[in-house]
């Protein structure tokens, strides 16, 4: 993990855990890092990676007291270990929500078509969005208002289910709404939405559905209780969605409230917005040519785009229309 400070990449790593991370598969490796909301006073942060066995690890690391730009690799506390049956669909993002809890995206376990039925199985963490209280000194606690607390046969960590491979989700820093992109199988990519007022428990449909379309069975599927995506696109426009963020920066006020998302294969970047009547409108804004593996936000709400193949990070800017 590296730091960019004043526009320059620091030569010393924030943290180097190469010795315990497995990245042989294209979807393995160091997948996410999250700092607590009060970053100025935080001396710990959280990391999601695949370990030497290919399993998911969510761990806490501590910053050095002598140099807050360095972390101690021996300070690791493993909070959660999830066995992965295949190398792909690890999900992997960590994000603190406006409620102060840590959210973790988990893929369905891999291969294709969810052969183990994990996404709709409430007794596994795979294919889910998790919500964890990590404020304690050791491990984690399940928030008492998680939607499935006390329900027999359901893991209480689950906040939402029915996910294939959630590849990047984000909270709107202004409204608290949650946007979650889920990579499709062979036909459709989707972006899901959860309003800030939601008590959790949404089922986003996989593998009954792929986007708004039946997957298993391929027709006549029962959609009762399933939440439809806010946006989808077919594979004529890309092959793997990458979720972004809602722009809340001050530099480009014309972009305020617009949710950006992209595609890894084509580099397309779309803007998504909800109208006053609740309807969703998505428009193609840019054909970047980048292999978009992630988006990021800085402290003031500016948005950045990661190009996996080029190893570059770009600042997303608005065109000058004056």
Give the full name of the CATH homologous superfamily.
TolB, C-terminal domain
Overall tally of structural domains: 1
Q: Ends: how far apart?
A: 39 Å
Query: Which runs of at least 5 residues are low in confidence (pLDDT < 50)?
Result: none
The succession of helices and strands, N to C, reads: EEEEEEEEEEEEEEEEEEEEEEE
Describe the sheet with the most strands: 4 strands, antiparallel
CATH architectural label? 6 Propeller
| CATH level 1 class label | Mainly Beta
- According to CATH, the fold-level topology is Neuraminidase
Strand content: 35-45%
Radius of gyration: 19 Å
- State the helical fraction: under 10%
Could you report the average pLDDT, rounded to the nearest whole number? 95
Approximate shape = globular
- Count of individual helical segments: 0
The count of β-strands is: 23
Order of strands, widest sheet? 3-4-5-6
SSE-based structural type: mainly beta
Q: What would your notes on this structure say?
A:
The chain has 322 residues and is mostly beta strands. The chain has no helices and 23 strands. It has strands at 4-5, 8-9, 30-34, 44-50, 56-63, 71-82, 94-96, 102-105, 128-132, 158-161, 166-171, 178-182, 188-194, 209-210, 213-214, 231-234, 241-246, 259-263, 268-274, 280-287, 292-297, 303-307, 312-315. The strands form seven sheets. It has a four-stranded antiparallel β-sheet, with no helix packed on it. It is globular and about 60 Å long. The model has no long low-confidence stretch (mean pLDDT 95).
Question: What key attributes describe this structure?
Answer:
mainly beta; four-stranded antiparallel sheet; Neuraminidase; 0% helix
């Amino acid at each position: 993990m590296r730091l960019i400070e004043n526009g320059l990449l620091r030569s010393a790593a924030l943290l180097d855990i190469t010795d315990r991370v497995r990245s042989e598969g294209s979807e393995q490796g160091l997948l996410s890092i999250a700092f607590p909301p009060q970053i100025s006073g935080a001396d710990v942060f959280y990391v999601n990676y695949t370990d030497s066995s290919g399993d998911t690890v969510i761990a806490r690391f501590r910053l050095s007291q002598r140099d807050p730009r360095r972390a101690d690799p021996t300070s690791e506390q493993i909070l959660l270990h999830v066995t992965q049956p295949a190398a792909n669909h690890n999900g992997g993002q960590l994000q603190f929500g406006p409620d102060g809890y840590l959210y973790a995206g988990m893929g369905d376990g891999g291969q294709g078509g969810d052969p183990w039925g994990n996404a709709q199985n409430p007794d596994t963490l795979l294919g889910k969005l998790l919500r964890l209280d990590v404020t304690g000194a050791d491990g984690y606690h399940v928030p008492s208002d998680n939607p499935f607390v006390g329900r027999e046969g359901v893991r209480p960590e689950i906040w939402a289910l029915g996910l294939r491979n959630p590849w990047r989700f984000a909270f709107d820093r202004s409204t608290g709404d949650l946007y979650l992109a889920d990579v499709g199988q062979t036909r459709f990519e989707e972006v899901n939405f959860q309003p800030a007022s939601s008590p959790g428990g949404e089922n986003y449909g996989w593998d009954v559905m792929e986007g708004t379309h039946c997957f298993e069975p391929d027709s006549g599927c029962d959609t009762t209780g399933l939440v439809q995506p806010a946006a989808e696109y077919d594979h004529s426009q890309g092959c793997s969605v990458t979720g972004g963020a809602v722009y809340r920066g001050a530099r480009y006020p014309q972009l305020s409230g617009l949710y950006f998302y992209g595609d890894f294969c084509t580099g397309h970047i779309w803007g998504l917005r909800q109208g006053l009547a609740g309807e969703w409108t998505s428009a193609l804004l840019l054909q970047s040519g980048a292999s978009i593996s992630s988006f990021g936000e800085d402290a003031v709400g500016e948005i950045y785009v990661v190009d996996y193949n080029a190893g570059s990070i770009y600042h997303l800017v608005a065109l000058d229309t004056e």
